[in-house]
Automatic annotation (TrEMBL):
Residues 130-210, 226-343 form the D-isomer specific 2-hydroxyacid dehydrogenase NAD-binding domain. InterPro entries: D-isomer_2-hydroxyacid_DH (IPR050223), D-isomer_2_OHA_DH_cat_dom (IPR006139), D-isomer_DH_CS1 (IPR029752), D-isomer_DH_NAD-bd (IPR006140), NAD(P)-bd_dom_sf (IPR036291). It catalyses: (R)-glycerate + NAD(+) = 3-hydroxypyruvate + NADH + H(+). Pathway: Photosynthesis; photorespiration; 3-phospho-D-glycerate from glycine: step 3/4. GO terms for cellular component: cytosol; peroxisome. One of its GO terms (biological process) is oxidative photosynthetic carbon pathway. The keyword Zinc does not apply. It comes from the Eukaryota. One of its GO terms (molecular function) is hydroxypyruvate reductase (NADH) activity. This is glycerate dehydrogenase.
Length: 428
């Protein structure tokens, strides 16, 4: 029998019982649930990672939905417990859901939500920060200063890599990978090479074709008068080296050619240890490798060895193979910058993630349809308007059957007439 866990209760008389396994930022998510007759229970246990037993105790005998975290193991045991308690909805407060066994959720008819879009730029910004930090040896230099070792400017002090004109390689050019690519191309004038299973059409169009400088307002973009043809041509016209881009036909091509490589795929069987001893061996000796996806995408033991053998090779890591632990030796290496899985940690983003996760669960409880485009979640994040009557992002909606496939693009309950433009498949 699991030990009882400490909880904080909001709206005790609410009809639907929704449990959050962690306190989450902001209060909007709580208010949105309360407004729709939910009793909200938040686990306040002082333990960072809850065990399956802890969560079973939280679910109890009656639970309509759970908001969980990426550190939790949502498999057969938890989905059967949730189903026994009458629950039909679970949402990760994360876009990645490699901690969730979606087949088990399907078996018990439980909807699985995630939180795409709201964290795209925030995560890409951290990947960009790590790229600069590793390339310019900022952590090493900071430690040197604090240790009182600086006794004057020297020509060879903390010499790192210039990004301008070098090649950035992106592996997994989805939402975050594409946002990162744009930042590095536009911000640092890097050439781009990317590898993905699919063509990153939006990214390619962005880099290649039109830079629309819209002096009026974003919704006039289609009729904008001020097109600067291609970014490369724009740079050329200004006497600068134009940037280039290409889609690689293999990951190895990216590894061989790029100076900075950032990993942004999902974690699944195809991406487990995507970067290993062999792939590290083909990378440039002075390359910079960034991982803001999931730890097991890199074989961390092989990485530690590679960093030891190649002191000019640098990494920036937000995620780790055995999170929260690091493989032996990593913490001692000066050519590694390590941060504790904070890529989405901006206030706006984390509050938005909490809101999307809560609305995923609420949507299923209330029988709302799934939002038409999980990449366009802004209507759910507008604090000045009621959110659309829909679940923002349910990853197993098709598997759950036709009623869940019904898509919604109507705004909130108070203004159902106003609609978001229809989803354009190419943009998804
Ligand atoms: N460190 C952090 O705090 C955060 C980490 N993440 C991680 O980033 C991942 C990506 O997020 P999004 O960009 O929103 O997802 P996304 O689904 O838009 O992009 C993932 C891309 O990976 C590609 N991909 C899948 N398998 C691949 C393979 N074998 N080789 C190459 N590419 C492959 C997909 O085609 C897709 O384009 C999440 O699944 C999550 O694990 C996301 C947010 C924050
Ligand atoms: O959203 C995710 O997948 C994260 O890793 C945390 O933001």
């Amino acid at each position: 029998m699991a030990k009882p866990v400490s909880i904080e209760v909001w709206n005790p008389n609410g009809k639907y019982r929704v449990v959050s396994t962690k306190p989450m930022p902001g209060t909007r998510w709580i208010n949105l649930l309360i407004e729709q007759d939910c009793r909200v229970e938040i686990c306040t246990q002082k333990k960072t990672i809850l065990s399956v037993e802890d969560i079973i105790a939280l679910i109890g005998d009656k639970c309509d939905g759970v908001i969980g975290q990426l550190t939790e193991d949502w498999g057969e045991t938890l989905f059967s417990a949730l189903s026994r308690a009458g629950g039909k909805a679970f949402s990760n407060m994360a876009v990645g859901y490699n901690n969730v066994d979606v087949d088990a959720a399907n078996k018990y008819g439980v909807a699985v939500g995630n939180t795409p879009g709201v964290l795209t730029e925030t995560t890409a910004e951290l990947a960009a920060s790590l790229s600069l930090t590793a390339a310019r040896r900022i952590v090493e230099a900071d430690e040197f200063m604090r240790a009182g070792l600086y006794d004057g400017w020297l020509p060879n002090l903390f010499v790192g890599n210039l990004l301008k004109g070098q090649t950035v390689g992106v592996i997994g050019a989805g939402r975050i990978g594409s946002a990162y690519a744009r930042m590095m191309v536009e911000g640092f004038k890097m050439n781009l090479i990317y590898y993905d299973l699919y063509q990153a059409t939006r990214l390619e169009k962005h880099v290649q074709l039109v830079y629309c400088i819209n002096l009026l307002a974003p919704h006039f973009a289609d009729t904008c008068m001020f097109h600067v043809p291609a970014y490369g041509q724009f740079l050329k016209a200004n006497g600068e080296q134009p940037v280039t881009w290409k889609r690689a036909s293999s990951m190895e091509e990216v590894l061989r050619e790029a100076d900075v490589i950032s990993l942004h795929p999902i974690l699944d069987k195809t991406t487990y240890h995507l970067v290993n001893k062999d792939s590290l061996a083909i990378m440039k000796k002075e390359a910079v490798l960034i991982n803001c996806s999931r730890g097991p995408v890199i074989d961390e033991v092989a990485l530690v060895e590679h960093l030891k053998q190649n002191p000019m090779f640098r990494v920036g890591l937000d995620v780790f193979e055995d999170e929260p632990y690091m493989k032996p030796g990593l913490a001692d290496l000066k050519n590694a910058v390590v941060v504790p899985h904070i890529a989405s940690a901006s206030k706006w983003t984390r509050e938005g993630m909490a809101t999307l996760a809560a609305l995923n669960v609420l949507g299923k409880i209330k029988g709302y349809p799934v939002w038409s485009n999980p990449n366009q979640v802004e209507p759910f994040l507008n604090e000045n308007a009621p959110p659309p009557a829909a679940s923002p992002s349910i990853v197993n909606s098709k598997a759950l059957g036709p009623s869940w496939c019904k898509q919604s693009n109507s705004y909130g309950r108070k203004n159902p007439g106003s609609v978001l433009r229809a989803c354009n498949a190419e943009e998804c």
